[in-house]
Amino acid sequence: MRRYGSALLLVLVGAAVLRISLLSDLYLRYVQAGLRPYLVVSGVVLVGLGVLAAVVRRDRESYDDEHAEGHEHAHPHHGPRVAWLLALPALALLLFPPPALGSYSAGREAAEVAAQGVGSFPALPAGDPVELTLAQFSSRAMYDSGRSLKGRTVRMTGFVTHGDDGTWYLTRLLVSCCAADATTSKVEIRGAESRDAPPVDTWVTVTGTWHPKGKLGTDAAWPPVLDAATVRTVRQPADPYEQR
Q1: What is the pLDDT of residues 137-161, one digit of tens each?
Q2: What span, in angstroms and rounded, lies between the C-alpha atoms of 204 and 177?
Q3: Tally of CB atoms within 10 A around 21
């Protein structure tokens, strides 16, 4: 088995990549949807290289055995056994894919106000409730001089994080490329329907109205506030991240 160690590692890594990208939507926990074709191609190439390496190794050993008669047989050199530890991450990804980032990652990021000036935003679509991402709601709540959220009912989906004194937030992580560059967008939830905070990391859809807070474009306006009319538990979406 040790003779084919490098080939086996290539196949394991390739199979793990294909497991999360070709055979499921698990890759969305780590990267954007647009990167799926590249992951699939990478997985196929790694598996192909592993199979090719195994075939070349077998043929080389057969050739060496045929020409070893009458000569001192040299023992093949094997790499250190510790190299097999490289198989553990691949096996973990293949058998137990890590979950998407959640409340722990969101809690590590301090409040940050985007370098964005106050100005007007395009009108919201007609009809209530209007579906918004947390990033869209936050931008309008903090920077929209036209107050386009005023009097409108909005609906957003995210996971629950807890603050101090019973405060809880609807939270979502935003990514540009992959989970490694994730930043946090969150909205404080108030109102009669928010008194009993759901457990941390529970996914919920909240419907409600904007609660103005602080001066636009200042730290006092962050995080924005929503007065909840309904809070409904939902399943985690296939793509748990919002895109920038």
Answers
A1: 999 999 999 999 999 999 999 999 9
A2: 25
A3: 23
pLDDT in tens, 40-53: 899 899 888 888 88
Taking only the tens place, the pLDDT of each residue in 30-41 is 777 778 888 889
For residue 14, the tally of other CB atoms under 10 A from its CB is 22
CA distance linking residue 100 with residue 61, whole number of Å: 44
Place of tokens 């055979």: 23
Give CA separation, 88 vs 16, 29, 72, 210, in Å: 11, 20, 37, 48
Q: Cβ contacts of residue 10 below 8 Å, gap of 6+?
A: 46, 47, 49, 50, 53
CATH code where residue 214 lies: 2.40.50.140
Please say which residue of 98, 131, 163 terminates a domain: 98
Q: Strand 130-131 relative to strand 153-162: parallel, antiparallel, unpaired?
A: parallel
Other beta carbons within 10 angstroms of residue 109's beta carbon come to 13
Written as six digits, the tokens of 206 are: 């909240």
Look up the pTM and report it: 0.62
- Same domain assignment for residues 89 and 110: no
